[in-house]
Amino acid sequence: MIHSSLRPSGILILFALLVLCAGSAVLHAQDFFQLGSEKGAAPVTVTGGYRLYGQTANRQGSFSQRPADLWRMELNPTVSLYGVPLTVNLLLSSEQQGLQQEINAFSFTLNPDEVKRIVAARATKALEDYARSEYGELLQNYDSIKDSLKTADPERYKEVSSMHQLETMRDVSGNDITNYTDALQGLGLMSDVEEVMSHFPTIGVGTVFPIFSPLTVSGVRLTGASLEWNPGWFYIHLAEGTTQRPLLRLDTVRTDSGLYQSYDQSYYGREIYSAKIGVGRRDGEHVFITGMYGIDDKNSISFTDTNTTLTPQKNMVGGLDFKVDPIPGIWTLQAEANASLTVGDLTSPQFSTGSVPEFLLNAIDSNVSSYFDWAATAQTVVNVRSSGTKFNASVRRIGSGYRSMGAPNLRTDLFRYDVRLDQSFFSRQLTAGIFYRRDRDNLIPYKRSTSTLTSLGATLGLNIRKLPYLRVSYAPYVQENDATDTLYQLSNHATLLNASSGYAYRIGDLSANSGLSVGYQSSVTRNNVADYSVFQINGTQTIGFVFPLSLTAGLGYITQNATAQAANDIVTVDVSGSYVAFETWSNSAGLNLAFDALNGTRAGFFLATSLPLGEFAVIDLRLERNIFNELVTPPVLGGSYKEVIFRGTISKSW
Description:
654 residues; mainly beta; 26-stranded antiparallel barrel; two-stranded antiparallel ribbon; 15% helix
C-alpha cells in the first residue's frame, strides 16, 4: 500500500524512468521489445496503460466531500516476459487524507487469466474467419458430414473437428480454454508457454479486491495478498490482509439538543483471512467450501471517554456453494448457503453455560454480544439459443443477523424471489419479456412491522429491418407493510411506463438519426398524503456531414404533480456538436438549458478537445461553466451558484 507519508515525487520519478527505459528498449532492441500487442509477438511485450487526471474549480460541489481541486495518477502496465504476464497497478491521489481510510493503492499481480483471455479472443477471431471461408459450410453441417468427411479427407476432418471444438468452447464453456488446449495448440492458436502459463495460479500482492462470492467476500479492499489456482479439477483461493487501518477521529456533531462530540467515525484496525477450496471449475460445474474470519484489533485505538457506539468486533463465516449443468450450454443450476457468527463487542463479558462445552466457547471466543444467522441463494437459468428462449428464476434469503466483514455492502434482512422469461420471434426482430419479483423483510420479527415489495411487468422490443425500432417497458409495483399502528402504516402503489423509438437514415449525402422517448411515473400513497406523478418526453436529432462534423439537438418537456405542491413544468434544450480535424484531433462543444417554472433557470456549456501525441499520450481537456438561478432553495442548501470546472487528462493504452 502507498501511504500518505510516501512522497508522490518519488513515484513520478520512477514512472519517468520506466518510460525512458521503455523508449530506450524500443530504439535499441526492436526485435526483443514490443510496446503493445497489436504489432506482433516479441519476447518482452508491454501492454496496459496510464492515466494522469487533474481538476480545478471555483467551488466544491454541494453536499460533496470531493474537493474542488484534485489530481490522480493511475499506472497499470502488464509486462509479458516470454508469455508470462506480470501486472502492476498503482493509484495515487491528492484526495488521500489522514482522517479517512486509504485511497492510494499499489498491487503486483501474476495473472494467467490474461493469457486465457488473449487465447480465447484469438480463437474467436479464427473461428469467425473460418466460418466465412470456403469450408465454413462444413463447420455449419458438422454433425451430418463428420463421418463421411473422416473417411474421404482425414486431414480436413481433423481441421473441421478442431474448429467444432472451438465452437463448443465458445457456446458451452463460455470461452474457458482449460479443456480445449489440445485443439488450440493443434490449430497454432496457443503456444507451449501459454499452455503452461494457463495452469499457473493468480497471485496478487498489495491492494487487491478478491471475489469469493456475493455472500462471503466481495467488494472489500484488502491490503495484503491473494492467491487463486484452478488447475483442472482442483480449486483453491486464499486471501489475507488489512481491510481498514486504525483511525481515531473525534467529530463535533450538532443535534436539536445542542452540540456533542463523538468517536463514531473512528475505526479499529481490521484483518480478514479467507479461504475457498473444492473441486471443479470456477466458472463451470463445481462444489466449493468457503471460510472467512475477520477480527478488529481492540488495542489499536483507545478512547478518552465512552461517548461512542463504536466497538471492536469479530466475524466468522462458513458455507458451501455449487454449480451443475444438467444440460450443458442450456440448463444451469447453482446455489450457495452460509452461516455467520458475529461478536458485536470483544470487550463484553463471556458466556457461561453448562449446555455448551467450555472448550467450544473458548474456541469461538463468544460472549453476550454474539449473534448468529444464515444466508442462502439459489438460481436456475435455461437458455435455448436456437429458439431464442431464456428463463431465469432465483431466490435469496439473507438474515437480519447475517454478516460478513468481507462483503461490506451486502443487504441483509431480505427474502426475495424473482422470475423472468424472455422470448424472441421472427429472427430476433421481435422480443418480449415478463418478470415478477417479491421482497420481504423482518425475517426474525424485531421491527414494528413487516414490509413487502411486489413488482411485476413486461417488456417489448421491435427491431424490424428498415423500420424504426421500438422499446416499451411497463412495471407496476406495490410497497406496503402490516403495521397495526396507523401512524406507521405504509401503502405505495407505483407505475412506471417507458417507451423509446429511433431511426437511422440518410438525406442525400447526410447521415441522420432521429429519436423519441416518453416516460411516465406515478405513485399513489396511503390516504393520498404523498401522491406524485411525472411525465416526460424528449426528442433528439443528429446530423452527420460528409466532412467530419456532426450536430445533435434535443428538446424535452417534463411536468410534475405532487400532493400539496404546485404543478411544475420544465423545458430542456440541449445542443452539441463535434468536429475531427486532421483525422485525429477531436473537438466538441455543447449548451444545455432548463427552464423550470417553479424553481428557476439552469444553464451550462462545455468545450472539449482530445489530441493524440504519437504512440505515447492522448491529451483530453474539458471546460465547463454552469449557472443555477434557484428561486426556492437558498445558496447555503445548494441553491443558486455559478461554477467553472476545468478537467485535464493525459492517458494512453497499449
